[in-house]
Amino acid sequence: MAKKLKLGKNKILLGVCSGIAEYLDIDSAIIRILWVLGTIVSIGFGILLYLVFWLIMRSNK
Predict the structure, then answer these.
(1) Model pTM above 0.90
(2) How many domains does the structure of the chain reveal?
(3) Rounded distance, CA 58 to CA 28, Å?
(4) pLDDT, tens digit (0-9, with 9 covering 90-100), for 1-35
């Protein structure tokens, strides 16, 4: 059975990072740190990307 990318249970904000971490079988803290660093480097593009991921993952319930 194929894995589905969905919102995670270990939510801090909307559950996107924890959902990605569950899909990849790694710790959600690593995803959160990488996401923050990517957002800083990309001058805020990560915030828009986070919202897009949330919309996509919310529809996969």
Answers:
(1) no
(2) 1
(3) 18
(4) 678 888 888 888 899 999 999 999 999 999 999 99
